[in-house]
Automatic annotation (TrEMBL), chain B:
Protein name as catalogued: Fibroblast growth factor (acidic) intracellular binding protein a
One Gene Ontology cellular component annotation held by this UniProt entry: nucleus
Molecular function as annotated in GO: fibroblast growth factor binding
Any one Gene Ontology BP term: platelet aggregation
Organism: Gadus morhua
Annotated PANTHER family: ACIDIC FIBROBLAST GROWTH FACTOR INTRACELLULAR BINDING PROTEIN, ACIDIC FIBROBLAST GROWTH FACTOR INTRACELLULAR-BINDING PROTEIN
């Protein structure tokens, strides 16, 4: 009996008219949890009823609390006939079970009906009282935190990364049960929604149990998917990375909050931990040995021995309850690990000591790691398997599906081994189902992880560095090959690393992870897509499965070739965030590979693409070849310019210098816009030193083998055409499918998350592979063009985390769905920052600020003169300009006040602006910024959504829990709802609205790591019907603006709760 | 190869002001695309017709989905379906309720009924405004009318609060409601030269001074119905023209004051009785609903036209009316000073507004109509094509 759930129905508004005679509604509410139902009174004849009900109390097991949603049904009372349902609200109460997250759910929820969509709103209050339960054999896993984010969440520190967790549950699909023939579509949809909600609750609970077994307290990179297998049932499966997370106390290093991409990780070290950890590990108190139940190790809510350390006193009060109740290790002492956590730590170390070899699957769903965690990256490993679905006979033992995945994971593991790697990072799994054939896919990046971190299982790089005083691994380290040079798993050209010159690197690198923060990159990145269609004969059963599995390797090969060609065309040498999706339809297969191409400075400059014609000396043909060659060369030159790829010759020759500069630049972005004078001088010194070493370095590596494309058949012609048809994004736009665009740092807070869906009907029955490819490619290209056009007011802007999903919903339909976020950025970050800073600083400090450029001005001039290519990044150039500007002002000797500096900076920045809409842009930016802070002012809390793990210009101060919602919408009046587009448009808007409402009710103001996992659309225009299923997920968070003072977090929170609270 | 479905949904609802205006103006998607393709700035984005089409369709759909909320603007602020920053909401509402002066001129004072709505296609072809836009504007009038009809309190304030409109627009709607309620005749040829703004000004005057609300501000319909008691009292003013002595006395007082101050003195002297009779008769007849409707016609026929045919400059007319009003106070036997002031105050400002300007003085009335009725294409302002996101 460990929990009491309490719910109160406060009011409704904007209800639909249910009684045509009076144009009013007699509404009442049913509140259901498990098998218990309560009802409110009928509030007669009102569209804005005020029920203000009593607290409905449900006494339930925490197992149920985890599995079941709270179900709220709004009905219209009818004296003579059955009551009409207006709609429902499902509230997932999981966030309330974790004391660190939300304490109350309170706010306006859209009342949703699967046939009519949103019909008014209802204000609800929900609370949970949890009782202590020390039963070790319990089935619940309350308190395990779940994160969709595929990196360590920003306000946490990973004390331990335990590894891969997976689980799946299966059930019959209500839509295919016999009862579905006699019930209404509404009842069927609701049964399905409820079942899936239950299943994902159960799944989460089971995963939580596994995490507790491993000794963790959180799942990061949680990825849950539904497989609607039709007749054979529904499979809900999830994978994630189990971790032990410590919450960073609010007072801790502010940098820790900011995302590594906006603020490349500076050493976020907690000095107290350095001192306290060391002795603890050597002590090895034998008394602590025992069953590894976290609860045992946490008996003391008494102040830990290190009561002098600040976080302890702060946390002891807040964590009393959860310490005894939930298995959060080491959190009693926050950042500084106290003595009582020592033994536990030791135990965990023992457990993980055997490191990755013993783990069944050394997989990590994370895509972003602290610097130094990744030692080497081998390359992408993937496995696919085609299966024939059969009915799941016993839902309690989903062994077949488990076995399938097991098989695939083993394959991935062996692939990784072949690459000389012991781990797979950026791991993900997916399926594509058509009738009874199913493709299971898994992909990841083979890697070698730092054995030190594995031994200790500790991701806390900061303290690690301090303890061992090792030089941090070179930033180019991850590019170095992990496999044996003489025994390469695949043909690759190896060269010595362009940065350190010590290790071998491949000529290109493909990965599924995000660009490591420490990586040195030249220029910007760009979204690269390979698209492919293959026709297939219609077939049944095994024949069908065989033909599909025969096609797969060819598709993979072609996609790979396309990616490679496009990468070369852009003069880039590495792909990050690679995601290959293969979808099956009845008569075709679609393949779509997306990745972000970059130029890694450590890897060799890619050679050109050379076109070779047929051997015959046909003159016209030769001319044709020449013209194509010219076009390709032009395109490459253009791309180089567009993405600012200037292979930094000088730096490449002296990697130390380049590394040094790059790191410093990134540090600069972190916090202080103006680096300390000390750093600055170091930078210049190292540059001057470099000139001496130039001559010694090996210059012979300039000869590149060109990539040869032979035009000897139609396929090759097609390849080349598809190469050249990809239009570059318009000026001012960049795009990538990773967390952020390499080479762009100065984000503004302007962002727009969106989902776009297109369905194309192929009218022509006898299509060839080629024409189909063209259609598919054009479809994707046009979609991108539309996005650029729509978002043109955000220029300069970058589409980040562009996520394409393709599907073949019917015979002749191709569906493409995109979710991404458009983020605008400033072109002259430092100048503006300087301005801001100057305003805030007092006059006294100003003197100091102006001092160091004075010292540097001579040097900076020499930098400029020595033609040290002020261009290798935008940042560098603006930065140098800043120095020049400052030096200039000081030479004039006229600048004494901050105002002057600012105005000068401004005038320069405006004159240098080169965006197409300079004035209008800046104005709209500013207005966006000023209005963005609002939300307290209006009745509805503004909730931001982003597929990224962070929000630029803000700090995430709290994670409120995972959002995982599944909706079905159906209509029998498609035309009246504006056709298929109108129907889907409304539905997607409704899904967004419901996500926002849930986040706001939890007290949050944003969703990060948002994704739309599923969008299944079916239509039958002849019957005027359509149905759509959408599954979305993300992490609800509370953020504060960087500029806000420390006090604001609480303010924001109360205002969020307050505005949505009962009125 | 047909695009079966094409949607774009942003977390913050994207609305392009230019497209919004085209939608409000009743352009079809195809026409809107044509307009957009030639509008400036499009080459910059190398936007193909296909892309613009897709965008326009999306926007139109969004507007259609929003329209339901725009009918009830207070809902827009606390609905959850669209996340729209407050300043954008204000823009959406203001634009939605903005009307074309040319259009409102056609229906001003008419009953806001189904019958009038049926005739909108005539209005549409006459004004060149699309039927769709005419219908929206007409429905807006009707909606505002219905909502404020039953409300207590000041009309302008009620409109502003229930429809979250700017003060200016709320005042214009108050005028429309007031005209519709009293069914003032504005469509006659003789009144054609007057713009909506002229009438709106007069309506403001009438609301402020002649309605029930002018004396008691907490009754229903206070700003919509004229003060019956006051209208009754107006009958007493008849003494000014029926009593021969009073009339002569009044005339001599006015003439004394005017002598030497105007070029048209003779005309004023000769016309005095005629004009005075005209104005007082208007006052006396206002108890009849029919005569209330003809109020503006009467003002033109009984006062403005005679003056114009005598070529009074508007300064002359102002001088005359001022002295005409003030002199009445000097009449010993005239006891209805308060009613007189309340009446003449409004009449004066209405006539000042309605009197044709000097520059257009020599041209015939029909000429004035053409000049004033030029349909000015709306300006999108500096932020025209920019959609702002949060």
């Amino acid at each position: 009996m460990p929990g009491k759930l309490k719910a109160k129905i406060v009011a409704g508004r904007h209800l639909p008219v249910m009684d045509r005679a009076s144009d009013l509604t007699d509404a009442f509410v049913e509140v259901k949890f498990g098998n218990t139902t309560f009802k409110t009174d009928v509030y007669p004849k009102c569209l804005n009823p005020q029920w203000n009900s009593e607290w409905f109390k449900f006494e339930v097991d925490d197992e149920d609390l985890q599995d079941e949603p709270l179900q709220i049904t709004v009905l219209d009372h009818d004296t003579y006939s059955a009551n009409d349902a207006i709609g429902k609200v499902y509230i997932d109460i999981d966030p309330l079970l974790c004391s660190e997250a939300a304490s109350v759910i309170s706010g306006w929820f859209p009342i949703y009906d699967t046939i009519h969509g949103i019909r008014g709103e209802i204000n609800v209050l929900v609370k949970v009282d949890l009782f202590n339960d020390l039963n070790r054999f319990r089935q619940s896993s309350c308190g395990v935190k779940f994160f969709c984010t595929t990196s360590i969440p920003l306000c946490y520190r990973a004390a331990m990364v335990h590894g891969f967790v997976e689980e799946l549950v299966v059930n019959e699909d209500p839509e295919y049960q016999w009862i579905d023939r006699i019930r209404t579509p509404r009842a069927s949809n609701e049964a399905r929604q409820r079942l899936i909600s239950l299943m994902s609750g159960e799944l989460q609970r089971k995963i939580g149990l596994k995490v507790l077994e491993m000794g963790g307290n959180a799942v990061v990179g949680y990825l849950q998917c539904f497989d609607l297998e039709g007749e054979s049932g529904i499979v809900v499966r999830a994978i994630g990375t189990a971790c032990t997370l410590d919450k960073l106390s609010a007072g801790a290093n502010a940098n820790a909050y900011t995302h590594p991409n906006t603020a490349p990780a500076s050493n976020a070290c907690n000095s107290p931990s350095k001192d306290s950890k060391e002795p603890v590990f050597s002590e090895d108190p034998p008394t602590a040995l025992g069953p590894l139940t976290p609860l045992r190790v946490l008996p003391s809510s008494s102040p830990p021995p290190f009561s002098s350390s600040k976080p302890c006193s702060r946390q002891s009060s807040s964590s009393d309850t959860d310490l005894s109740l939930t298995p959060k290790m080491g959190m009693g002492s926050g950042g500084s690990v106290g003595k009582e956590a020592g033994p536990l730590k030791m135990l965990l170390r023992q457990q993980t000591q055997t490191a990755l070899e013993q783990r069944e699957f050394p997989f990590f769903t994370l895509t972003c790691f602290p610097p130094g965690f990744l030692v080497h990256v081998g390359g992408v490993v993937s496995a696919r398997s085609v299966k024939l679905l059969d009915r799941i006979h016993n839902p309690d033992e989903p062994e077949t599906r488990d076995a399938w995945w097991e098989e695939i994971r083993q394959e991935i593991k062996s692939h990784a081994k072949a690459l000389g790697c012991h781990a797979v990072v950026g791991y993900s799994e997916s399926t594509s189902i058509c009738e009874e054939v199913c493709i299971l896919s898994a992909a990841g990046t083979a890697a070698i992880l730092n054995p030190r971190y594995m031994r200790e299982g500790c991701l806390d790089i900061g303290s690690g560095d301090h303890r061992f005083d090792e030089p941090s691994p070179p930033s180019c380290g991850f590019c170095h090959i992990p496999y044996d040079e003489l025994n390469m798993p695949f043909p690759a050209q190896l060269t010595y690393c362009y940065q350190c010159r010590r290790q071998k690197v491949p000529d290109v690198l493909f990965t599924t992870i995000d660009l490591p923060t420490e990586a040195a990159v030249s220029g910007k990145g760009c979204l690269i897509q390979a698209r492919l269609c293959r026709l297939k004969k219609k077939a049944q059963g095994e024949v069908n499965a065989t033909s599909i599995s025969n096609l797969l390797p060819f598709m993979e090969y072609e996609l790979h070739t396309q990616l490679m060609n496009k990468l070369k065309l852009r003069s880039m040498n590495a792909l990050f965030g690679l995601r290959i999706q293969i979808s099956i339809g009845e008569n075709m297969l679609l393949g779509l590979a997306s990745a972000t191409g970059v130029y890694l400075s450590a890897l060799p400059t890619p050679g050109g693409i050379q076109i070779a014609g047929k051997a015959s000396g046909d003159l016209s043909n030769e001319q044709h070849v020449l013209s194509i060659q010219k076009r390709i060369n032009d395109a490459m030159a253009k791309n180089k310019e567009m993405y600012h790829i200037n292979p930094p010759k000088l730096f490449a020759l002296d990697p130390e210098v380049f590394h040094g500069i790059n790191m410093e630049l990134s540090e600069e972005a972190a916090g202080s816009p103006i680096p300390e004078p000390k750093q600055r001088s170091r930078l210049f010194r190292s540059q001057s030193e470099s000139s001496d070493e130039l001559s010694e370095l090996d210059l012979s590596h300039g000869k590149k083998d060109a990539f040869v494309l032979e035009i000897d058949d139609t396929d090759a012609v097609e390849d080349i055409h598809s190469l050249l048809t990809d239009a570059p994004p318009p000026a001012g736009f960049y795009s990538c499918n990773t967390e952020v665009m390499p080479g762009v740092y100065n984000w503004t807070s302007g962002l727009q998350m969106f989902t776009s869906v297109r369905v194309l009907r192929l009218s022509n029955a006898n299509l060839t592979n080629q024409s189909l490819n063209k259609i598919f490619t054009d479809m994707c290209e046009n979609l991108l063009k539309s996005l650029y056009f729509k978002l043109r007011s955000m220029i300069p802007c970058c589409l980040c985390h562009v996520n394409f999903t393709v599907a073949v919903p019917e015979d002749e339909l191709i569906q493409v769905a995109v979710t991404a976020v458009a983020m605008s950025f400033d072109k002259e970050p430092i100048l503006e920052k300087l301005g801001d800073r100057a305003v805030f600083k007092g006059a006294g400090e100003n003197e100091d600020q102006l001092q160091f450029p004075m010292e540097l001005c001579a040097e900076s001039a020499s930098v400029a003169i020595s033609n040290l290519t002020a261009k290798f990044t935008d940042r560098c150039s603006t930065w140098l300009e800043l120095i020049r500007l400052k030096a200039h002002t000081i030479r004039r000797g006229s600048v004494k006040t901050s105002r002057r500096t600012q105005s000068l900076a401004r005038s320069v920045s405006s004159s240098e602006r080169c965006s197409p809409l300079p004035e209008g842009r800046s104005r709209s930016l500013r207005s966006t910024r000023s209005s963005g802070g609002g939300g307290g002012g209006t009745a509805v809390t503004v909730v931001k959504m982003t597929p990224l793990s962070f929000l630029p210009g803000t700090r995430l101060i709290k994670y409120l829990g995972i959002i995982n919602m599944f909706f079905i919408r159906e209509t029998t009046s498609l035309r009246e709802e504006g056709g298929v587009s109108g129907f889907l448009h409304t539905f997607i808007a409704e899904v967004f609205a419901m996500v926002r409402a849930h986040v706001a009710a939890l007290g949050g103001n944003a969703v990060v790591s948002y994704s739309m996992k599923e969008c299944v659309f079916m239509e039958n225009p002849n019957k005027n019907q359509a149905q759509c299923l959408i599954n979305v997920s993300g992490d609800a968070v509370v953020f504060v603006r960087d500029t806000d003072q420390e006090a604001t977090p609480t303010l924001i929170h109360t205002s969020c709760g307050g505005t949505d609270g009962p009125t | 190869m047909a695009v079966e479905l094409d949607v774009f949904v942003g977390n913050t609802t994207i609305m392009d002001e230019e497209v919004y205006q085209l939608w409000l103006d009743g352009y079809t998607v195809n026409d809107a695309v044509k307009v957009r393709m030639v509008s400036e700035g499009m080459e910059e984005y190398e936007a193909s017709a296909e892309v613009v089409m897709s965008d326009t369709m999306d926007q139109y759909r969004t507007f259609q989905m929003c329209e339901r909320l725009l009918h009830n603007p207070t809902k827009l602020a606390n609905q959850l379906l669209f996340q729209i920053p407050p300043h954008r909401q204000a823009m959406l509402i203001e634009r939605y309720y903005t009307f074309d002066d040319v259009f409102v001129r056609e229906v001003l004072g008419k009953k806001l009924s189904k019958g009038t709505k049926k005739d909108l296609d005539d209005v549409s072809s006459k004004t060149g405004i699309t039927l769709k836009s005419c219908r929206r504007q007409f429905d807006n009038f009707k909606r505002v009318f219905k909502v404020v009809e039953e409300l207590k309190g000041p009309l302008v304030e009620n409109i502003r609060q229930n429809f979250i409109l700017s003060d200016k627009l709320a005042r214009d709607y108050a005028a429309i409601v007031f005209f519709a309620n009293n069914r003032f005749e504005t469509g006659k040829r003789k009144l054609q030269y007057l713009t909506f703004q002229d009438f709106a000004f007069c309506a403001g005057q009438l609301i402020k001074n002649w309605t029930v609300g002018a004396v008691d501000n907490m009754v229903e319909d206070m700003d919509v119905d004229l003060d019956k008691e006051f209208l009754q009292d107006l009958k007493e003013l008849k003494i000014l023209i029926t009593d021969k002595d009073l009339l002569d006395q009044h005339k001599s007082l006015v003439c004394t004051a005017l002598r030497g101050k105007t070029k048209v003195y003779t005309e004023m002297e000769t016309n005095f009785k005629n004009l005075s009779r005209g104005l007082v008769n208007i006052a006396a007849k206002l108890t009849n609903t029919k005569d209330v409707r003809d109020f503006f016609i009467d003002l033109v026929e009984k006062f403005i036209e005679p003056c114009r045919s005598d070529r009074w400059a508007s300064a002359d007319m102002r001088l005359y009316l001022t002295h005409y009003t003030n002199s009445a106070h000097l009449l010993d036997t005239f006891k209805y000073q308060v009613v007189w002031d309340r009446y003449m105050g409004v009449i004066k400002s209405c006539i000042f507004k309605m009197y044709p300007q000097m520059s257009t003085f020599s041209t015939p009335l029909s000429g004035i109509i053409d000049q004033r009725f030029v349909h000015v294409k709306r300006d999108f302002g500096p932020l025209g094509r920019l959609s702002i996101f949060l």
